[in-house]
């Protein structure tokens, strides 16, 4: 696990001193991702200079896995961030074909695979990764990202240079000219509270989409983005498979995935929230390990956000060495600014705050933690997946004109003054999500502002009418209707842009490696062949996963409801963060900024601060944007 950087300077050949200084500076900016080691490669190739660097957090092959790694003829060189979970299997296959190795690292396995099979070998990798390979013979650089997008990869081509990096800070600090705000990225952020690939907050800076690779041709100084070839797998629903067969297969796949992701030469544990996913991962690991495992959970002094009773029950059941941390506003306050600034672009998922703290506490005991991330996307576990049924029935029974009356009449009675996300909040969100044109799912995933609200709070010159267009075109889903549609949209948008970003940045800021057993390519592909009612059975979410493991837990445990892993930021905006928030709505500051409608955004914030209306999600989204704008972006 580490972070990688690289650049190709094709309009100006750099001296060895210049290129080494530049790549070292990029590495220094991400030292938190890899405090154990670093490495660089640089070469002048005619009129072109190429450099690659990495920071390493040593997890596997602690002594001989130093990067960069070269092929024996030194025609190939690689820097790599991530873990390949099937590398031992792949290595055995290569050895049986007469190929020799100098290290015990998964990095060398990637390089040997490429050396023998080219870019088609990328599909063989089971893991999380971002890597770059310089092929001197082909005079090309290949830069790849994993199936789900667990590991980040940004890139830009500008001012005679192509740059790529694990974190935005390596690019923004290296850019020769100030970068402008990208309007699509801005609109996506304000709607979603995060920015998914291929966009970023900056014009010209892109995120490499999951399961893609860049081919950069050094002879032409141009690049193309390709999809990694997908291994053959049935795409159609297998209606003949029985529930019993599916349960057995899923239990086997999940267990095997947990085992494969537990390979480590350093101490390892699990995040245990007490929900279905983390409980199953912890159970599987405890059954595989001969000694008690380490489990970690975090709770809040505000009881409506605290669910440590569930994690305590599981920890006792599996006899783990359980570590529980109860936090309040003061615990977050010290690190909040560092947490938010480390994302390098606006990011408003409040669960990043407790994720950072549990990572920080966990790192005091272990270097690797398994998580339950991805279980909801793979097995259909979100409440929003009910919306297909809700929207279809509601819009067929209730005329659009009547809905408008019900919605407008109800809203004043659904206002709340506290950040408790109770029944009134959920009913209000439901009414706002019903859509008679089939676009309801784009609104239900918009946790910040709906499209109509953006028209109210954002100046017209900054508005983009169709920010989701590229995803509709790429996925071929204009109006998601089925559970399969919802899961596919979430895999490419919310999983890549939110869930995985949150865990990667907060854990790596603490030099902790997180692994997600549910994010397994084989598991995802298998579940996609199953009937949808195996996942969402009536109103029973994640039905198949719970059925597969229900005999391992006390009766009814896996059916207990669980809230999201959030933080009471709505309250904090009124207390410890209020002074900073108020500074962001100063009239002259907003007018100079030229992004928001001064009158409407000021009213929104003041209503929240006064306790008149709880506007937590919108105000927190605004606050995180302003914090990035005035602390990180600093417009020239």
Specify Rg, calculated over alpha carbons.
24 Å
CATH superfamily (homologous) name of the domain at 243-327 and 356-381 and 492-559: HUPs
CATH architecture of the domain at 243-327 and 356-381 and 492-559: 3-Layer(aba) Sandwich
Largest sheet: 6 strands, antiparallel
EC number: 6.3.5.4
GO molecular function: asparagine synthase (glutamine-hydrolyzing) activity
Pfam family, one: GATase_7
Family: Belongs to the asparagine synthetase family.
Looking at this protein, list some descriptive labels.
636 residues; alpha+beta; Glutamine Phosphoribosylpyrophosphate, subunit 1, domain 1; Rossmann fold; 6-stranded antiparallel sheet; 25 helices; 17 strands; 41% helix; 16% strand
Task: Describe the overall structure.
Belongs to the asparagine synthetase family. GO terms for molecular function: asparagine synthase (glutamine-hydrolyzing) activity. InterPro entries: Asn_synth_AEB (IPR006426), Asn_synthase (IPR001962), ASN_synthetase/amidase (IPR051786), AsnB_N (IPR033738), GATase_2_dom (IPR017932), Ntn_hydrolases_N (IPR029055), Rossmann-like_a/b/a_fold (IPR014729). Its EC number is 6.3.5.4. With 636 residues, the chain is an alpha+beta fold. Among the domains are: 2-153 and 208-227, Aminohydrolase, N-terminal nucleophile (Ntn) domain (Glutamine Phosphoribosylpyrophosphate, subunit 1, domain 1), CATH 3.60.20.10; 243-327 and 356-381 and 492-559, Rossmann fold (3-Layer(aba) Sandwich), CATH 3.40.50.620. The chain is built from 25 helices and 17 strands. The strands form three sheets. The chain has a six-stranded antiparallel β-sheet. Helix 6 (243-260) crosses helix 7, helix 6 (243-260) packs antiparallel against helix 19 and helix 9 packs across helix 10 (352-363). The protein is globular and about 75 Å long.
């Amino acid at each position: 696990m580490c972070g990688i950087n690289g650049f190709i300077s094709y309009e100006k050949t750099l001296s060895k001193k210049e290129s080494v200084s530049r790549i070292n500076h990029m590495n220094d900016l991400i030292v938190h991702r890899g405090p154990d080691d670093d490495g660089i490669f640089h070469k002048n190739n005619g009129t072109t200079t190429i450099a690659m660097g990495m920071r390493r957090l040593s997890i596997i092959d602690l002594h001989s896995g130093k990067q960069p790694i070269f092929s024996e003829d030194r025609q190939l060189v690689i820097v790599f961030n991530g873990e390949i979970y099937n590398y031992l299997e792949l290595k055995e296959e290569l050895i049986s074909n007469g190929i020799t190795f100098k290290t015990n690292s998964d990095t060398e396995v990637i390089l040997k695979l490429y050396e023998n099979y080219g870019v088609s070998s990328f599909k063989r990798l089971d893991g999380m990764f971002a890597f770059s390979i310089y092929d001197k013979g082909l005079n090309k650089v290949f830069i790849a990202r994993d199936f789900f997008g667990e590991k980040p990869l940004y890139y830009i081509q500008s001012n005679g240079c192509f740059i790529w990096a694990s974190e935005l800070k390596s690019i923004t600090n290296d850019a020769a000219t100030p970068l402008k705000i990208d309007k699509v990225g801005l609109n996506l952020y304000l709607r979603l509270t995060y920015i998914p690939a291929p966009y970023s907050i900056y014009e010209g800076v892109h995120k490499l989409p999951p399961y893609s690779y860049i081919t950069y041709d050094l002879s032409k100084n141009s690049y193309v983005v390709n999809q990694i070839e997908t291994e053959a797998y049935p795409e159609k629903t297998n209606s003949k498979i029985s529930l019993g067969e599916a349960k057995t297969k899923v239990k086997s796949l999940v267990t095997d995935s947990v085992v494969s992701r537990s390979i480590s030469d350093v101490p390892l544990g699990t995040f245990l929230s007490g929900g279905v996913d983390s409980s199953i991962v912890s159970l599987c690991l405890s059954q595989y390990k001969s000694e008690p495992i380490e489990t970690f959970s975090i709770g809040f002094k505000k009881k409506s956000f605290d669910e440590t009773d569930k994690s305590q029950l599981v920890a006792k059941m599996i006899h783990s060495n359980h570590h529980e941390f109860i936090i309040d506003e003061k615990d977050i306050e010290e690190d909040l600014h560092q947490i938010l600034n480390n994302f390098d672009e606006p990011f408003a998922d409040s669960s990043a705050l407790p994720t950072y703290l549990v990572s920080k506490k966990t790192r005091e005991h272990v270097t690797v933690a398994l998580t339950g991330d991805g279980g909801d996307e793979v097995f259909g576990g979100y409440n929003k997946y009910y919306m297909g049924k809700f929207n279809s029935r509601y819009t067929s029974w209730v005329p659009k004109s009547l809905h408008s009356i019900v919605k407008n009449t109800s809203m004043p009675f659904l206002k709340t003054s506290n950040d408790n996300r109770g029944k009134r909040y959920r009913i209000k969100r439901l009414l706002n999500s019903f859509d008679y044109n089939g676009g309801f799912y784009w609104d239900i995933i918009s946790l910040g502002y709906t499209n109509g609200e953006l028209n109210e709070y954002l100046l017209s010159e900054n508005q983009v009418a169709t920010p989701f267009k590229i995803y509709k075109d790429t996925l071929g889903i204009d109006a998601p209707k089925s559970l399969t549609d919802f899961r596919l949209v979430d895999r490419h948008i919310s999983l890549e842009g939110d869930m995985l970003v949150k865990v990667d940045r907060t854990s790596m800021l603490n030099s902790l490696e997180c692994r997600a057993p549910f994010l397994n390519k084989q598991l995802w592909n298998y579940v996609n062949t199953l009937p949808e009612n195996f996942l969402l059975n009536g109103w029973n979410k994640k039905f198949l996963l719970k059925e597969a493991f229900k005999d391992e837990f006390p009766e009814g445990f896996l059916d207990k409801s669980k809230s999201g892993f959030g933080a009471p930021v709505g309250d904090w905006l009124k207390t410890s963060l209020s002074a900073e928030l108020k500074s962001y709505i100063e009239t002259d500051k907003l007018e100079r900024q030229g992004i928001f409608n001064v009158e409407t955004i000021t009213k929104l914030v003041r209503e929240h601060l006064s306790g008149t209306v709880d506007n937590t999600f919108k105000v927190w989204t605004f606050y995180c944007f302003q914090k990035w704008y005035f602390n990180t972006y600093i417009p020239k």
